[in-house]
Design goal:
single chain, alpha+beta, four-stranded antiparallel sheet, 3 helices, 36% helix
């Protein structure tokens, strides 16, 4: 699984989540930091090109930037599990 971290405006989180998750099986969105409006797009290997295309298309619509993995992913059990299973982030 690949992690694509994105920073955006807080009011755009729901929109991005809706768009991305409407493409079933590509991946899921998790909110990493609500206050800073950082989300992660967890992408299945086979759909990485589709995911990159979605991020590029969203970038044309809203303010959105890809960022490195934040040092503290918060208390999200899934994100903590991913960090434990693969410290080199896929």
């Amino acid at each position: 699984m690949h992690e694509i971290y994105l920073e955006l405006r807080p009011e755009d989180i729901a929109y991005v989540k809706f768009i991305i998750e409407s493409y079933e099986t590509v991946g899921i969105i998790r909110t990493v930091d609500r206050k800073k409006a950082v989300i992660v797009f967890l992408v299945v290997e086979d759909f990485l090109p589709v995911a990159r295309g979605l991020v590029a298309a969203l970038r044309d619509e809203i303010q959105l930037s890809e960022i490195p993995r934040p040092p503290d992913v918060g208390d999200d059990w899934l994100m903590n599990e991913l960090a434990t299973d693969n410290p080199e982030t896929l």
